[in-house]
Amino acid sequence: MKNLKKQLSILTFAFVMVISLSVINVNAKDYNFEEIKSDFLSGTEYTLTAEDNLIFGDETLIGKDGRATIGEGGTATLKYENNVVNATFNGNATINEGSTFFQYVDMIVTKIPINLTISENSILEIYGTLVVPTANGGSTLINNGTIHVNGTGALELRGSAKYQGTGELIVFSNLAVYGSSGNNIGDAKISLSEGGNIYSEADISENIVPYKAIDDSKDYEIIDNENNNYTSVSDGLISEFPYAYAVKAKEVEEIPVTPEEDITNTNNTVEEVENPETSDGVLIFLSLTVIGFAGTALAVRRLYN
After folding, report:
1. Cβ–Cβ < 8 Å for 28, 50
2. Cα–Cα distance between 302 and 217 in angstroms, integer?
3. Global pTM exceeds 0.85
4. 80 near 111, Cβ under 8 Å?
5. Of 121, 22, 126, whose CA–CA distance to 74 is shortest?
6. What is the pLDDT of residues 127-162, one digit of tens each?
7. Of 1, 150, 159, 195, which is least packed with CB atoms within 10 Å of its CB?
């Protein structure tokens, strides 16, 4: 009887696991862009979860093995409207190492810009390269959460592309800002970590602040980077920038401490100099000399009188 109950328990557990796995597999979806293109361009919104894949051509654009990956519990929503694809990452997402994610949809005859929003309380980790391009007026990266540019990763903001939002952008590796005016980043603040590099065609020093969480015990400052060469993932773009920035810890000026013995000797020396005063001794000597001469003259006068 006990063996029968045990066997039934095992079968029940196995049945539950099969049902659970079946639900997970049912929820996971593969979206092939060629198959959904008509609905997508008609304005249908698509929401991808961490289990889903967006396939473009013969490559996974978003998915576990894609150029970009959505973290557990996160989503990516995509909607085409007004000749732009509006994409939003909620939760955590990653641009994977060795991958390049261009913010446009290549339709062969044209490139549709992608405006990518990182929502509040969401984090985008960049280990590969995220390119915000200039295609058809330029794409926009809207950061209302947090973006980390990590490891050997890079973020490229092209000339007519824009960076906006109220979130924090922290550069641990490379950021390249193209465009001679610098207007593509407006007054946004960029945190630069020690070991990170920012390259720019315009002077954007007012936009850059040291990343304070490096070491709270130190003060950091933005400096000119002697290495101003950055190689883009796209051919034909400049590799030598007029401006390059790095960050370093400020040197702490050490104030010499005078030993207590030296302080005592110094005080004694001052007292010896001040007491007695030499000028007072000279005046007394001269006064006595004058009195002596006067007395002698008076005695001689009395003698001869």
Report:
1. no
2. 91
3. no
4. no
5. 121
6. 999 999 998 989 999 999 999 999 999 999 999 999
7. 1
